[in-house]
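Hi W.,

Here's what went into the run:
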Amino acid sequence: MPVVDIDTDELRRLASTDDTDDELKAQLFGLGLEFEGETDDGELQFEFAPDRLDRLSVEGVARSLRYQQGTDRGVYLPSMNDPEWTIAVDESVPDERPYVTGAVVRGLDLTDAGLESLIQLQEKLHATMGRGRAKGAIGIHDLTLMKGESIATDREKSITYRGIDPEGDRFVPLDGETDATPATVLETHPTGEQYADLLAGMDRYPAIYDDIGLFSFPPVINGQRTEVTTDSRDLFVELTGTDQWTIDKMCTIICYALDARGGRVERVTVEYPDGTELDCPDCSVTEKTISHDRIESVIGVALSTEEVIDYLERAGLDADHEAGAYEVSIPPYRVDVLHPIDLVDDVGRAYGFNDLEPRYPDVSTIGGTHDRTQLEDALRETLVGLGFEDMLNFHLSNVENCFERMGLEPPAESVVGGGRPATIVEPYSEEYTIVRTWALPSLLTVLENNTHRRYPQALSEIGLAATIDESVETKVAERQTVAGVLGATNASYEDARGRLQAIATAFGVALSTPATEHPSFIDGRTATIEFDGEPAGVVGELHPRVLVEHDLELPVVGFEFDLAALSA
Amino acid sequence: MQLPETQANVLESASASAPTPIETIATDIDEPTAAVTRAAFELEDHGLITVTESTSDSVSLTEEGEEYRRDGLPECRLYRAAATAGADADPVPMGDLIQAADLGGPAVDIALSNFARKGYGQIESGVISIDPDADPDADAEAQALVALAAGEPQDDTPIGSLERRGLIERESSTDRSVQLTDAGVTAMMEGIDVADTVGAVTPELLTSGEFESVEFTPYNVAADAEQTPSGRKHVLRRISDRVKRVLVGMGFEEMDGPHVDADFWINDALFMPQDHPARTHWDRFALAEPDRIDELPEELVTAVERAHRNGIGAESEGYHSPWDEEFARALALRGHTTSLSMRYLSGHQVGELEPPQKYFSVEKVYRNDTLDATHLLEFFQIEGWVMAENLSVRDLMGTFTAFYERFGITDVQFKPHYNPYTEPSFELFGHHPTTGELIEIGNSGLFRPEVLEPLGVECDVMAWGLALERLAMLMTGAEDIRDLHGTLADLDFLRTAEVTH
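Here's what came out:
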């Protein structure tokens, strides 16, 4: 979940409040921002769910607080000046990163705290909406250090977004010592190395030019020439990415933050090669309609029209009521409102969800467990009655445990326990790379890990085993398998056979055990388990090779069969 | 006077003039020492004899000590082999000496360390030289072994060092003797009748009616017996069963479905954008083989894609994220059991569902993470949902409050939260029944219209989820989740964990 660092003095100033830190903490908790701790600089850190990304900086948090405290009501739109600058998109722009947007903000007087907050907002937007800069990346420049070339008669100034050969030009990156090509920056600059993956496989790299030359290499790094400092008064914000809406919204959130710091936002015109022209950022309100009935039904309380409008305005929205419904205006920084239902949540939060009285719903249904659960429960009870300790092992395993240590040669498709295993991509642990094909290896591992514990050890498990089967919907045949082992100084085949007989009797199936061979068991002491004449599994004395492999120093008998075979 | 046979025999063998050791009596009357001891105490209770006790310590050689007494201490053997090889003049390679002294296995290390400790010589860079003045024949430990074996320990016997080397063991034993009291002598003179005592109830005893005239040999009923091996249901399974019982009691029906499933059912149907961090994050258990589902309900796929791209109506936005059907077809181990909810709600699993419905599952989910004391790669998720007309947040609160009350959590708090698939959404918190700590106990909400409309659901659905292990750790006090679940399980923990009910 995102974390925002808050300088509480800044917050008090921006929210026009005298509240103490503790009072602020309590109010922010009400907004869903949970106090996490302090930074080394004494700023307070708050964690929040990643819906209200407009709260990624102190300016946005202050705006929410102003609404919460009633200082502000209704929709706020910053005033926007008409564009003076144009971003021209060249035909050469990389197909992988075709979109651009931007804004100019003038008249700022950035303090250290203000600049720090801007940098934080930029980084947090990169991490969230920008999906690690892949979907959207922000570059902020000192406008006075840029020189615009006039490309059209009716406009003053222009910069160009284009694609260039990775070795095609040179610039001095931020924190760089000398000028370098974009390709060199990716190899030698720390930030370049960090984001090089985003450009992997691209023939042309994204680059932004002004009249003087290359000054931004998105999504990696800006040039040093246009670096923003506390002396910067006028800023140029540019964003590139893979989705126009996303970068426009990121831009909007930045413009709202700078507006809160006294900046005057000025639109920028974006011209695409196909002739499309956009005035950015698009700071218009959107409208959605929600019925009064729906609000009452979801929250579960009766509300008057005035109350609903009041709650909406306290959430920073505007609402007109007509014919049992509200037409709600939503400001452009609200990236989380995807559907009218999201407005109900705003009403609920303003009302105070915690003030609601829980009620048990009058929904009458008949409950019950699944047939499989009932069969499993019945068998588990039988196994426990036979003295087995019920185990619950991981379904994930590895080829070594499932096959090799059991004496099976993968995939061993013709024997019980074999088959092609479902295999995991890039497992984090070498121990867990496949879904187990049978459960007996898990029980042997438990025996192996418990040789210091009292014997006899009788263990059983009913759980999942799976193998690849192209004929199944999910390509994996999943079954509930039943396995049991008995480790004791005098354990023999008959101990397992006897227990199987008890199980067969309990479930009313006829057990037969014709001799078979299986690599995990001793020849001549191994049988196929048949219930009512149908093969269901295997039973026998575990082969000494398998025992020694598991550091066991006494005989072990074991069996495994399909749970479903008992329900036939 | 009538006494059981053993007691009568003991009385007979005891003397009034001097104490007789119990062992002596046991030999005399050919009964086990334990039985004689028991009889002696019974007689003492009757005031017929007195039992006196004395404690004595004895020292005996262990198997290893006995071996060294016979063959010589390893370090002495090493010294002698070195002396024979002329190591008093020139150092001799260690390997040659070890072989000459016939040392093997752990005896090699024992020889080397004690050789050095006793100053028999120098061991450097693999060669051994000896101190010609040392005398292994006078080795105090070697001599002590001989003396102890002969039962003649000397005052200066180095007991401590021999015990540290595990060559001797000390035992303390209690010797008991009995002597007739005056009452005992009187009883003897008056004559003792032997009463029948029997060890076991036999069929003959019962059918003959003989049990009426016998006395049963008493047992030490206060003593520990060897514990009976017992089977029991796994502690986590018991808790899962309890959760199931509570939910069934609340009218919920159980779901079942695949562990390996398409991302479509796990995430897309749930309105999780394809570029959501949870879907690109490495903690997703994607499958290398098999890697693609072929069968998906075509109309539903189209409807879900539309919801992602454009929303579900004029005032619905959808996501500004890429959507690729191939990604939806990718197979993975489910990260949550909400895949089952999607299968059921869509009608794909058990046919179209008409409200009202309540469903649940307590099933495994998978997360590609590091295994540690509080994180498992696979764990159980409790999942539940209610489908009905006009459900409200208050209904949600009432339902989950009722559920948690059954587990002793009576003060559930609902913290507004955000999930991509529910709105409104709430994290559930409650106080630990014993420690009082405020902990997260679940996540809940009303499914968004973008989830429900493509599934063809026209009423409301509220849902919640919770990790079963979380509940289990609270209920059992387990501190390491790995004790509870998996092949690292400690049988002793499972055998001794208190049964929950």
